[in-house]
Amino acid sequence: MDHTSPRPPRGFTRLSLGALSGLLAGCAAIAVAELVSAAVRPESGPVVAVGGAAIDRTPPSVKDWAIREFGTNDKLVLQLGILAVLAVLALALGMLATRWHLVGSLGVLVFGAVGALAALGRPDSTSFTDALPSLTGAVAGAALLYWLTGRLGHPGHPAPPRDAEQSAPTPVTDEAGTGATGTGATGWDRRGFVLAATAAAAASAGAGFAGRALNGSQGQNAVASRKKVVLPVPESRAAPVPKGAALRIEGISPFMTSNGDFYRVDTALVVPKVDATSWRLRIHGDGVDRELNVSFDDLLRMPLIERDITLTCVSNEVGGPYVGNARWIGVRLADLLERCGVRPPSRGGPADQLVARSVDGMTIGTPVEDVMDGRDAMLALGMNGEPLPFAHGFPVRMLVPGLYGYVSACKWIEDIELTTFDAYDTYWVKRDWARKAPIKTQSRIDTPKPFARPKAGAVMVAGVAWAQHRGIEKVEVRVNDGPWEEARLATEDTSDTWRQWSYAWQATKGQATLTVRATDKSGATQTEKRTRTIPDGASGRHSVVVTVD
Fold it and tell me: Are 272 and 202 within 8 A, CB to CB?
């Protein structure tokens, strides 16, 4: 049977087949780029590179909105959004290529160049090879688009009237300059196009799966190095969590947050997997008399401390979930700085800012004075009795009690530079966040949940409050516009941890608004004035509305 039609597809059918060709070409470009990135590094892939560039250029208010709306799924939403935009562009280029083959293919190459520039512009890019995945993928996609749309034939001129169809064929010349006979249009092979499209889809799927598998296997050495880590017994151990610190109330946040439930907010679209055996940390800069380079094993051999510390993200809205409490093991950061001869500004040191750099290029600035004022600032190696999870900074991360994460909690740290705030603006400061950001006194109602319908009578209202490095002195609850009533505080673990609280409410039928406020040990009471997270953390009082049946 002859599957060749004397007439190529026209109109809607032709545009639809062109759109399909564009989509297949786009998938091929992404799949080939993913495969090539396995030979370069996973972060050089076009989706990751463009996504990282988008994060860097997103206004803080939009980024804050994304975290608020999508939570820890914000990166997944971004990547899906990038793929959706690429799909639309691929459909458009495919339709364009049905009329102008070269123009459609050149469009694919342009987007490949954009991906290459994005990869080369990443802070952690160190080689021109980061451009190869996007460029190679674009060439593959452009060639496939040209090939597929070429198999559709050229529509040429409009078909002649029916009564002229039996006349002798008229020579025509297509865009490529080849002679053809017919009624103003070159023929096309339907079966050949379907086979070609199917083969392209299968090859793209294979390349994509292979790239994913190879990229996933690249972290095997890092995974193996983590499995081999045995955390020594800390020289200074944390006391057991005191009796009465963890209330047994249904719905309240656990006093200790498990590693799996601990919040993660960062800009890394691909979680770095760093091999602990090859990891190094360099400490240098202003006021450093003796530059220090240490390995992971060097840190394990140093005196370790173990502390319960609550971390809070600056993106946490009033009543939000981005706060967690864990038991950390690490090296006291002040001890390392003192070994280097560093002095805080209060003792005549020239540097007032410590810039921590991550393997993914993130920079975080911390006041040197806060790191060396006696608090338990550390380079953490362990979390809740095990080596740090990769998502939380393995092999080493920094943390400073009392400061929001964006000015203290550098994950995957590899470099510490002593400098001044006037001399250098870190990543978030360049995006209009404050240079210094102590954690604000906050409290949250965990139970009852918003819009709950408790029964009339005794209702337990409970939650957590935090004011790291100051401690919580008092928590109060108000029902509607009534008086503030003091809640019962759980036993304090340390001033660096959150504190649970509860309030026995005699609920009566009807709608009620429950509001909570905390007072820290400095005497400062949580303000009722609502502010957004930018530039130095949200403020205001958390409240929930319930209906009592």
Answer: no
Q: Say what the pLDDT of residue 434 is.
A: 97
Residue 29: name the closest of 202, 208, 248 by CA.
Answer: 208
Residues of the chain with pLDDT under 50: 1-2, 157-185
Pairing of strands 179-182, 170-173: antiparallel
Count helices and strands (H / E) in the chain.
11, 22
Distance (Å, rounded) from C-alpha 427 to C-alpha 415? 15
Sign for the pseudo-dihedral over CA of 524, 526, 529, 534: positive
* Residue-by-residue DSSP string for 33-86: HHHHHHHH-GGGSHHHHHHHHHHHHS-HHHHHHHHHHHGGGHHHHHHHHHHHHH
- Locate all alpha helices (DSSP H) within 315-442, ordered by sequence: 333-339, 368-371
Say which residue the tokens 């004075």 belong to. Answer: 369
Torsions phi, psi for 248 (to 5 deg): -95, 75
Handedness of CA 25, 26, 30, 36 (dihedral sign): positive
Contacts of 240 (CB under 8 A, 6+ apart): none
Burial of 460 (0-12, 13-18, 19+ CB in 10 A): middle
Tell me 316's DSSP state: -
pTM for the model: 0.83
Block residue for tokens 């086979």: 195
Tell me the two tokens of residue 528. Answer: 């009722």
CA–CA separation, 142 vs 20, rounded Å?
Answer: 14
Tokens describing residue 320: 């939000």
CA dist 433 and 70 (Å) reads: 21
Look at residue 168 in the predicted model and tell me its pLDDT: 43
Q: What is the pLDDT of residue 156?
A: 55
29/495 Cα distance (integer angstroms): 54
Listed in sequence order, the residues at least 6 apart from 247 whose beta carbon sits closer than 8 Å to its beta carbon are: 255, 462, 490, 500, 502
In this predicted structure, what is the pLDDT of residue 482? Answer: 96
Residues 228, 286 contacting (CB under 8 angstroms): no
Q: What is the pLDDT at residue 186?
A: 52
Q: What is the DSSP string of 103-151?
A: HHHHHHHHHHHHHHHHHHTSTT--SGGGGHHHHHHHHHHHHHHHHHHHT
Integer Cα distance of 470 and 377 in angstroms: 15
Q: Which residues pair with 525 in a beta bridge?
A: 519
